[in-house]
Design a protein that fits this description.
GMP Synthetase, Chain A, domain 3; 2 domains; 6 strands
């Protein structure tokens, strides 16, 4: 896997992934940015959310669950001192579908957190990561 980050101006950077996709990252105005994109630490949190959601959906589909929607709401706290690493991350899953099994949803989230989600496992080295979920019938 390769990636490249190019400085554009002030605190604005363009990240290019090896897959050919690009994203703008920027800092807040009080740090020289123009607020044109997500912050790099927000990218880490979004990456974890996407990684775990991908896993959960994949596991639920393999379990023949009729999932029609999934949202992961993330909330993180960072240390006060530099380096301001994540210290706590909470992921709240909202899984929507038809006749979803609570056992399958719970198992999918646990498998992602403990075995499959590389991003969660890496961030778990510095942060306490917790999860919960709700199931909504379509």
């Amino acid at each position: 896997m390769k990636a490249r980050v190019v400085w554009v101006e002030a605190a604005t950077m363009m990240g290019e992934a090896g897959s050919g996709h690009a994203i703008i990252m920027d800092g807040p105005p009080d740090h020289g940015g123009r607020n044109l994109g997500v912050r790099p630490m927000e990218m880490l949190l979004l990456g974890m959310g996407g990684c775990t959601e991908f896993d959960v959906l994949s596991i639920l589909r393999k379990s023949r669950q009729q999932v029609t929607g999934c949202v992961v709401e993330l909330e993180a706290k960072r240390s006060e001192a530099d380096p301001k690493v994540f210290t706590d991350i909470h992921a709240h899953f909202i899984v929507t579908g038809r006749e979803l099994s609570e056992k399958h949803v719970s198992r999918a989230i646990s498998l992602s957190a403990d075995k499959y989600c590389s991003a969660s496992i890496m961030l778990g080295a510095t942060a306490k990561i917790t999860h919960d979920y709700e199931i909504r019938d379509e």
